[in-house]
Amino acid sequence: MRTTRRGRAVGGLLVVGALVGGAGAAGLLDGAAQPPAAVAPAPTPSPTAAVREALLPPAADGAAPGTDGLQAAVDAALTDPALGGDVAVSVVDVTSGQPLLERSADVPLVPASTAKLATAVAALTALPADLRLRTRVVAGAAPGEVVVVGGGDPTLAGPSTPVRYPQPARLADLAAQVRAALGATAVTRVVVDDSLYTGERLAPGWKPTYVTEGAVAPVTALMVDGGRVRQDRGPRSTEPALAAGSALAALLAPGAAVDVVRGTAAAEAAPLGEVASAPVPQLVERMLIASDNDLAEALARQVALATGRPASFAGAAEAMTQALADAGIDPGAVRLVDGSGLSRDDRVEPGAVTGLLVSAVAGDDPRLAPVLSGLPVAGFDGTLAPRYRTGAAVPAAGRVRAKTGTLNAVSALAGLLRTADGRLLAFDLTANAVPLGANRRAERALDALAARLAACGCP
Q1: What is the three-class DSSP state of 206?
Q2: Residue 196 pLDDT level (bands cut at 50, 70, 90)
Q3: In CATH, which superfamily holds the domain spanning 67-128+283-454?
Q4: Rounded to 5, what percent of the chain is helix, strand, coil?
Q5: What is the mean pLDDT of residues 260-269?
Q6: Where are the domains of the chain?
Q7: In 3D, which of 112, 126, 108 has the Cα closest to residue 334?
């Protein structure tokens, strides 16, 4: 396993973007020499503890803020008109696990993309850490026919996709394997098998324009570059599986006329090539830091498959609910119909979100380490890169790690921060009545709220 770290000192807090691979955070900390052969190695520390130490280094760890002090610190910010006068708040002291400030924390709300925290925990607890999503090509029924079988990997990269972390499987590598296996046989037909997933391809509560706007592709078991028509955030293909088949055909037989059709692979078909995604922990990191909707839906369906349920929206929702219950989360507190949080039918209690965060940072379950390393850093990474750069939020840049959530009338922010006294807090701030057109102002208001929490001594 190879682990990369990026470190910066910001306002006295070491900010580390940890990229955790394989089985979690083993090997995360640099400079750990191997013991001599004659000396028994020390017990391996919890990977989650290692990530917590690297990402959220201990400070003075002073007393927990008081409820009255926290309330006074945020009262004025909660009345910002951009938030619509209806903001739910859950703030929990990570050390003790005790709620410090609650406002509608047990009310089911539309979470937007903070729902991905639930998807992350479900995937990390239900799926093997070494699971990779595999795309295969097998021989078809006749010479010159090949069948590409989707394994649910939305990160499968086309020829022009730039290198990124985690390293994706590449369609060009798959095509090279197939050409080598076929030898002189020319490819005349590509059959697309995306039968791993079942049911509707768009979730209940999704806007009909999500695909054309580029927010998400129809959920299929085979796609290239998340079904994007271009590399930017332009529209997605309405038939991403067939588009992937066409892209493979162009690599296998440049300039030739190749039929691309739907079908299924025979169980005994001869293998011609296979590529695999990054393992689940790295996929979870990418999902969180980039708020990758396609990857969230893919991971939710993998949870369904791992638990013997249909790989559909309903099967994934049922499987994730069970996985979260197994992780100690009240099944009634997280009710999702998709894995991405794009649906307006999703409902999550803010107190359940902070519960997930406390579970991840407590270190009791080392599988949850990627929840921490995948949280964007305020002002630096992922969906928080352009935020915390102006106004009242600037002092909290680098001091807040959080998942964002945005839909029409919804703005949310949930993550971790340290107070001025060094106390580590988990928080969820969710506004479900943002005025039309005020989402950007609502984001600034939530960032200012988080900054007030981070600046708080608040006895």
Answers
A1: coil
A2: very high
A3: DD-peptidase/beta-lactamase superfamily (3.40.710.10)
A4: 35, 20, 45
A5: 97
A6: 67-128+283-454, 134-277
A7: 108
